[in-house]
Task: structure prediction
Amino acid sequence: MRGREAVRYVAYLLLFLSGTAIFLISTFPGDRMAEMLNSRMKDVTGGVLSVDSAAFVFPLSLKVTGLDAMIGGAHVNLGNAMVSFGLKSFVGHDRRAGIVLKGPWGELPVTLEKKGRTWHVKGRGKGIDLARIPGGQDLPVKLSGRLSLDVDLDVDSEGNGKISGKGDARVDDASLAGGAMDILGAGSLGITRALVFWTVKDNLLTLGETTIQGDIIGDARGTALLYPSNIKNSRLNITLNLRPSAPSRKRLTPLFLLAGARAKTDGSVTVKVRGTAANPKLTL
Result:
């Protein structure tokens, strides 16, 4: 009998402590939680990411609003995020979390799982609105269309980091218009479909099947040597073979010539992309 009472009292105590912890977390001032989160992210990202506010959501989630990224010296609003933690994150050294990033551009669910020193990152987004992607409004042309992507990566956090994995991206019914396109007299450039498949092993990203269809037809091949601790210094070695479609040749060939391209008899050109991710250099 006493054993049963002892178990019951322990259960009551654990329930009380759990309820108290949840109460304290849920009533923790949002500004203070955001301050703590920003401090932690500053240590991890070097100040690239920050948030406006953060609040606990029962039972094991964190709602983040105003997620901001510093990209190219400018602040870019990525949207809001809901972070859900797995129970394993509170027991032992393994960590697991699910993140759903939302904004006017759409939704991107990502799962993170850490075992030892390796993070497994998996994300899949569908129907992302290219006209509303963060930072897209600063481009010299107006971009529209839909983007779908699938990413599956293993990231070793030791030292400068090591990335391996695969992914793909697909763009449908896209167009480039206005701005620089109008200045060059090219009108709008339609892309009915673009597909990119890639793999990465020991930080070397290699393009697989890559095709473009629409007013421009072409393919791409090449590599990118990634530096996880400083992505902007990643080295690019990519070659694109592009040609205007038959109905667009008369309109786009002068554009290629104006850009300095040496078009072949079918109007095709070869574009080489070298340099770094932060400062790519194009040669035609």
Summary: The chain has a mean pLDDT of 80.
